Every structure is written in C-alpha cells, then in structure tokens.
Amino acid sequence: MSSRRASIIQQDTEVPTQPTKNPLPENIIKTPQIPTPDSAHRHKPSRDDSSYFPPQATAGSPPTTWAAVNTVPPKPTIAAPVATPTPGEQPTRAANETLEKKPVLPATPSLENPPTNDESIEPIPHPKVATLAGLESLVSPKPSLSRSVSVISLASSIGAGTSASDKETWDRTLSRVINGIVSIKATTTRPFDTESAGDYTATGFIISKKHGLILSNRHVVNPAPITCVAVFVNYEEVPIWPVYRDPVHDFGIFRYNPNALKHHAVEEIELHPGAAHVGEEIRVVGNDAGEKLSILGSTLARLDRHAPSYGVDSYNDFNTFYMQAASGTSGGSSGSPVLNIHGHAVALNAGGSNSSQSSFYLPLHRVVRAVEKIKRGHHVSRGTLQTEFLHKSYDELRRLGMSEAQEEECRARFPAETGLLSVIRVLRGGPASPQRKGAPTEDKVVNGITQVPGLEPGDILFACNGKHITDFVGLWEIIDDAVDQEITLDILRAGKNGGSSQMLRVVPKVQDLHSITPSRFLEIGGATFHDMSYQIGRNHNCELESGVFCAASGFLLWSSWSRDFLVTAVDGKATKTLDQFIDVIRSLPDHKRIPVMTRRLGNTDEHIMMVDVDRHFFLAALFERNDVTGTWTRRELESAPVEAVVPAIVSGPSSEAEEDDDAETVALDKIKSALVNVVCRLPYSVFGNTSASNYSGVGLIVATDPMPLVVFDRTAVPTEMLDMRLTVSNKSFPGRVVHLGAFAIVTFDRSLLPADVTVPEWDSVPLKVRDEVRTIGLTNDQLLVTKDSAISSIGMNFNTKQCNPPRHRLINVENINLLEAPSCWGGVICRKPAAGSHDYKVSAFFMAVSSQNRNGEDVCWTQGCDVQRYILPIVSKLTAGGELPPVEPTTRSLAVEFADMPLSTVSTMGLSAERFKGFVRAAKKFRGNPRPLVVETHLRPLPAGVDEDTTLRIADIVLEIEGKPIYRVSELTELDLEHKETVEVVVLRGRKELRLTVPTVESWKTSGSTIVQFFGAILHSTHAAALEQVAPNATLVPLNSSGVYVGGVSYGSPALDNVRPTHWILEVDGTPVATVDDVIGLLKEKRWKEGDYVRIKQVSRKGITSVVSVRADERWWPGLCWRRNGEGLGGRALWVQERCSGAEYVEKDGIPRITAPSTPVNSAGEK
C-alpha cells in the first residue's frame, strides 16, 4: 500500500464534541469530513491554551517531513477528526489539512471494501540525505533572495554508484532545473467530489515560460474550488489558478502570469515521455511541505506497474501504466518532476508505498497531448467508455480463455510486449454496458462477426477501430479523439457452459469524459451537493445519474460532515441529478420539515430522514467552474417562498380513560405528557459549543399559560443560535429560547400545545437524604422509564471542570443525587406515593450535566435540581405578564465558584466550636453531611489595583453572608444579590475569622445575539466561560467591553491556521476592534481587494499576543452577520442574516430553472 505525498492541513471540526448522551437515530451518523487525498503536510494542533482543538485520535501517524537530513520520517498525521485511512496506496499529495471539520473533525468509520494490494500503509523510510556540495555557486544568476546550500539536500543515493563525470553533470543539471520548480500552497475552499476542505502544500514545475504553465498532480490541481500561490526557489510568490485537471489521470495544470514574476529567471523543464526506460538514473526534486527543496535519487525499475489504489473514498487513477522506483518520496513531493541526467522530465511523481521505498510515477504521454492543446488554446477532449481495463500478462490471459495459437500470433506481432488489456469493470449504464439505455437486447452477426451489446469483465481487447492494441496509450489515442462517435472493439470472450472462447465485436459510442466530471455544485444549509462523478461511481460501482452526491451533509445530518451518501428524492420528488435537486429545493420554504431519501454509496437500500430546510443561517448558491479565468461563478438562489400558515391540528382531551388503564398508568401518563424531547442543531461553533455535536435531551413543561414553557438542561439546549425541534405527546414542532442561566427555558407556539398536556403538581416539601423517590423519564424514542430509588446525597458532590474550549458549565447549584439512576437523560424526581396512592408530585427536575475530565475528555452525568428553589422563581417572572425579560437578564454575584469541604477538615483550620455545632444542626435538617463552602476559583480576573486581602480569596471558607450563616450552597439563592453592590462576608482564613466587604459583580453573558463571519472565522462577544480562564497577567484581554472572541474557524477558509479559536481579536490592519460591530463596520468599508493580506492582532487566554495575516477572499467567504430579532413564524427564534461584503462576486442573472419537471417518487410522497 502506498501514500499520497502531498501534505493537507485539515481541522474537521472547530471544537471538540460534546458528550453524546442518546444514541443517534439510524439515519444520523456523526462523522467528520473525509480528508482530501494526502497531498499536504498535516498539522497536529496542541492541547495547550492556544488551541481550540484537543488532540484527536488520528488514523494516521505523526507528520511526515520529506528529505530531512539523516532522518527517517514518520507516517503522515491527520490533525482533527478525520477518516481512518483506507488500506491501500495514498497519493504523495503533501497534505497540511486542518479539519471544523469541524472539523475536523469523532472518527470516521473505516472504509468498506478496502483495496487489496501487496503493499501496506506504513511509514516510508527515507534514504539518508547529504548536502549537495557546491550547488549554491552553480546557481546562476543568483537571485536577491536565494535558497542557501542548507535548504537544498541531496539523497545519498546520488553519490552511490555515480561516476565523477556523471556527478558533475547532475550538479549542473540540478542547479539549472531548480529554477523551474515551485512549491504550491493551496486551500480547498469547499468539499467537492473526492476532496474535502483544507490547506495543503505540494510541488509543481514550469513547462512553459511563455504561457505561464505549471504541471502538477490532479490531486494537487484539484477538482474542488481552490485558492493557491506558487513559491519559487527565491521565495518569490505569485498567484496561480487551475486551467486543467484530468478527470482520471493524476496530472493537472496551473497557470500564472509571467509578467507577475519580477525577481527570478525561470527555467522551463521539457517533457520527454519516451526517454524513460528501465535502468534510467533519475532524480526527484520536490519540496518539504513548502519549506525546502529536496532531491532524491533512484533508478527506474518498472514502466508497467498497475496504477496505485488509494482507497474507495479517495481519488484514484486507472487505465494507465505507472512507473516505479525506490526513491522513497513522501509528504510534499506530489507534482515533483522525475528528471533524467539531461534535466528532462520523464515522469511525474504521484504516489508511494508506506511499506517500502517504492515510489510511483505517472507517464507523460497523455500529459504532452493535453499541454500542447492548452498552449494552442484548444479544448482537451477526453473520451470514456466507463470501462476499466487492466494490462494482463499472457499467462493470465491464457487462464481467461486465450488459446495458444492466439498467444503465438500476438507475440509474433509485438515481440516486445508481454500481454494485452483486459476488461475488469464496466459501470452499469455506461456507453459500453450491456444494460445501457438503447442497447440492443440480442447479439447479431454483421459481416460474419458476432456483435454483442456491450463489454463484460474478463473480455480481452485485441483491436480498436481495426488497430491492434497492446497498451493504454494506443487505446486512448483513439478514444480521446472519438468523443460522441462510435468505435469498434474486437474482443475475445471466454465461452460459457464449457464452450470455447470466441472473437466478438462491441460498437459503443464514446462519451465525453468531462460531461461526467462535475464542475458545479449547490451550497445550501451548510451542505454541498453535486452530480455524482465518474470517480465516485467507479469507486463504489454506482450507476451515474442515480442520485445527487452529498459532499458535506450540513443541514441534512446536522453538521455531521458525513459524505458517503446520495440524495435520491426530496419532499417526495426524484433528485437523480443536480438540476432536479435545485428545482425541488428552490420551491421549499425556509424551516419546512421535509422527507429526504438517501442511499449510502455502494448500497442498494434507501433510507428516509426528516430534515428542516435551512435558508436562514447559510446562503444558498450555485457555483460553476470557469477554467478560463480560474475562478468559480457564484449564482444565488432567490429568496425562499413564504411558508403557508396551516392551522394546527390539536387533538382534544380524552373524554375517558382506556378501559384497561389502572390508576397508576393514568398518573404516569399525566407525567409523561409533560415531558418533552428536544433535538438542537448549531449551524456554527459558538460560545464553546461545537456544531458537530449532538444536542438532545429531555425537558419538563413548567407552564402553559399565558405561554407554554419548557425547562431543559444546558447540555441539550446550550445557546441561542440554533434550530430546535420539540416532541410533545408525539407531536413535533419548533421552539425558541426565552431564558438562559443555569438551565434553559424554551417556549413554542401555544396553538401547537396538545390539549391533554398538563403541568405537573409541585411538591412543596424539600427532599431529604434517604427519602424514597420515583424517577420518571423519557428515552430518546419516547419510551417512559421509571425507577424507584432513594436520595443518596444533597450538596456539591459533583463539580464541573473548566472546559477547553471554554463553554457554559453548571456551578454554584445544589445537586440531588440518586442511589440508582434510571437509564435515561432527563425527567422528573417525584416523592414516592404512599401505599394505595397514585398522586405524583414533582420535587426535582432530573437533568443531564456535561463537563470534561482531567484528560480533556467530555463526560456527562445526571442529577436532580430542586424545582421550587431554582426553576419556579424564573417561571414566575416569565409568566408575570407584559413584555418578556431579556433571554439573559442582568444579575449580580460574588463572581466566585464555590466547592464544599468536609466539616472534619474545616474543623482543623480554626473553626470555632459554635460554628461547628451550627453546621451539624443544619445538616441534620436534610439528613446530609455538613460541608462548609470554600472558594474554588474566581469567575473573572480581579480588577487592577484591587487588594486581594480585602476580597474573597481562593480557599476562603465562607461562614456568613449579610449576617446569615451559610451552611448549603442552595442558601445563596436567598440573598437577593441583584439589588446590592456590596455584601458583608465572614470567612475563615489563616485560622481566623475575617469580615470583608465584598463588591458584587454584574454577571457576564453565557451567550449572545450577534454573530459575524470574518474570512471564515466565526466571531462573537466574550462569554462568561472564556473569562473564567483568563490569566491574571493577560492584561490585553478585553474586560471592559464585549470584545471580539473567535468561536470557531471554518474549513477551507483564509482564517484557518491563522486566526485561532478561543482568542480575542484586538486589531485588524492596525484598527482597534472592541466589539463585533466594529468588525462589521470594517467589512462594510470594503477596505480589501481579493488577494490582499489583512493583518490581525490577537491575544490568547494566557495573554500571549500574535500577529497573523489572512488573505482576503470574499468570493468564498463573504462578510456575514446574524442577529437575533424577536420571534419568527411558528414560534421560532428569528435570526436575520445580513451580508456585509462580497456582493460583487454574485452573478446577477441568478440560477436558471430547468425545463423538465421533477418526477414524483410515489403518490404517498407527493405534496
């Protein structure tokens, strides 16, 4: 097996995932993006304060560096949630790919049906390298900024077995050709076809100075939209753009403006495909992830190797020979020229084996044809039969039915050849498939030759259009020039039922290969869709035009980044092609809930999923590639139609109970009717919550009049910027957040409230330890769960930890813990009724709590929360009438987090006997253990100049607040701190009781109502959890303003690997920014042109300041702003999206409608 040598940076997801509580539905698969074929050196983020991404379990190994002096490089590493590498060969594309990814980005399931090869994916050992002596002096003319000898290395194999005269010739050749080799730095802006979004570096070389053409690999040039630059040996950088990428073979061509190169004399490298022969001494010259040139020497060992296989989800080359040599190329060398001693390119470096030193090179015969056509401005025609051939030796052909006489005839005709081409795969529905549309159903005899409908695996190709064929070049010389024409294929097919083999003829019509290679895609709801490509169809043996390929799932699977399925129908209408898909999707109102039929690649069964259309958090646009300009045109969908208001169908209350329902069942059903399931979706990673996580849970209806109110834990409803779907009594509808605090309170359209829903009866007597209780909850599939248990403890036994990235956590709230908890993630805790009674009174809300352990792993548990003390006071304010208060009302607190400590420990710290007795008496009232409160940490840095001795300090034991003894954390709710600027606090410190006057602090918000996209960085105001982790010496972190906090960074964006999540942006091009509105103002000023670099000053939680540059790209990453603006249709939260920049890149003519109407799938699915 082998690995691609280009190096890709990918961050699958923007933040680590939240703990998964409930198993996902079958049609929801949490997977990250599949990484692009390994064409760049992947960066592995650290887990320190400066990183938003904790280390992920990777499917590769550490980053591979190419040709480092006297080192053996380790395997390439994929940083961020990434797919497990498929056993097989991987291309040499040096990938530096960062997955939000998200994404990174959760590990992907292993690929099905991995290719079987004689190589296995293992680290590629490097030959030791030595400095090429005297090379610097041979480089003429010497550029003003030239690479020194230290950055040019030479494989030790150069000197071994090379004569002195040859070495001198090689020195002269290499000193000349390095002026024509470039390092390519590129960013894939969107996932597309077999590629995913991210950064990578690779290699290319100049093949035409006059036309500004650079040759590299197809997996470098990339079918996806990319932005890229070329860096010459003197570190001069020029923009480049793709002008051609072959649909099948691993080569592509960039163009640059020769006039843009000011300080470097370019050397053109000639292509000589015929100069390659076994035993030829070669050099492979490429870059080490954009850092240096490296030169590896070897000898061509094979010219007829099968094309390497890189896995079913990756780009693969086929229908060509490859060359092989033991040069040991690795990350960053994709696109390197394979040079002979004259400095001519005899092949193109493409892939390598991870289990040996073998490297694989693409022959240049078809490359030369394409280059010549491009130079003349002609279209590069490419034909296809959707058939894969493999060269097989005569001994194999004999086993396929070739006779001895036929073998002798072939050997006599071509004495140097060792075999012929044989069919190994025919894609169903293709031009050569017997099952294609319009194919004859029976064989017929024409001029004495039996003509059959199509090709079959095992057929041996003898001739095409009357010309004898022995290799791929000869066959495709005919096919590529016969697009839309019929050709004749003379084949030998083994006999059936023991019969003898016979010569047959197939007359297929050659199809345009470019027509089945997508060049456009639709982006909607964060998802990317395009027609299924020949690459994907071939990899998974899927008939083309059988569904729309999903390159990024977005709203379909709620940011799971799954990309291994087809969409075959939407809202009951077939979507076999992208045009059909667009025709259906443009007619759907925003937020509409629709059925979507999907099919996994390689499977025949279809599955249904219900999704909500998203036209409010993401722009909807069709992108189409233009190889003349090297850009993609952007046409946006018209505004979504307004959804018709349909009267809610609400069932009336049941007039009588079922005959077989006993009193216990009726009482439990009453509680069940007040329990609500919720599923939330975050479009972007904000306020420490990742968009790639699953947010679901169980809530409790706490009011129905004047509006329905449902309480949820913050693990299920983490923030405001989200879409949510509630399920109440088997009815599903949207909701919106009306309160955020220790928990979330949600409302919905009252007309949708089922009539049989009632608010539970509340228990007014506080629970005590050892009280017998019954917990009633719901599973994620609406099943009722009950569990009899007892209260084991009440207090602060489970403290949440500070998370990375910082997110809301439950603090200073008394928890109620059960001896045995039920197998669900939410419900109610009721006091167990007396014998014969079925009167359930709710004492506590049974909720989920999430945090992280010491290893940074997400953890989740359940506990109870006193309804009377924590929830009902908030409900009273919301239902008091009049205008609703803010979602996060302003409150005041002591700005510290409390923990508790055993009384036995505190008694040794100077606690008086009277205080000791007070704690014991208070604990007896609830049968608990006395545990005094201790200051655990400050929730924000202390203001400058504040004397720490006059305020609360870490490890202070709190005894009294405002003259009231504090025995339990729940007593803090009785202090009414909202109306006090200072409070008197008695603490135990240094074995002495001290009386302090402590100022109260206005609470910081945990969420926000304005979000900004800035070149792919998701910005918002500072949230409370971030301030908790600011170091005392981080004086530049904004504490007196809302600040500009980086919540996440999108894959493929200019901000990726530059603007750091969990940092604050202080300046943009020297202009201070204190709020997100300041950033919006800069975007609207249109300060930057496309390709300009924007300087950004940022600071971390530790106070580390850095300045980075981001390349302006508003074609792909326009400035966007989202603001929460009241209530929308159906009780949803109304988020308004505003474009701040980038409108000039939108085509005005919009997306044309297709003439053919979409076909209904079936009558049941039609609307």
Number of helices: 15
The count of β-strands is 71
**Which architecture of the largest domain would the CATH scheme give at its second level?**
Beta Barrel
Top CATH class of the largest domain: Mainly Beta
Give the helix level as a range of percent: 10-25%
The coarse silhouette is elongated
The gyration radius over C-alpha positions equals: 34 Å
Task: Explain what you see.
This protein has 1167 residues and is mainly β. The chain has six domains: 170-374, Thrombin, subunit H (Beta Barrel), CATH 2.40.10.120; 383-512, Pdz3 Domain (Roll); 523-636, PDZ domain (Pdz3 Domain), CATH 2.30.42.10; 666-879, Thrombin, subunit H, CATH 2.40.10.120; 892-1002, PDZ domain (Pdz3 Domain), CATH 2.30.42.10; 1010-1139, Pdz3 Domain. 11% of the residues lie in helices and 33% in strands. The protein has 15 helices and 71 strands. Strands 32, 33, 34, 35, 36, 37, 38, 39 and 40 form a nine-stranded antiparallel sheet that branches. Strands 45-44-41-42-43-47-46 form a seven-stranded antiparallel sheet. Strands 48, 49, 50, 51, 52, 53 and 54 form a seven-stranded mixed sheet that branches. The radius of gyration is 34 Å and the shape is elongated. Residues 515-591 form the PDZ-like domain. Pfam families: PDZ_1, Trypsin_2.
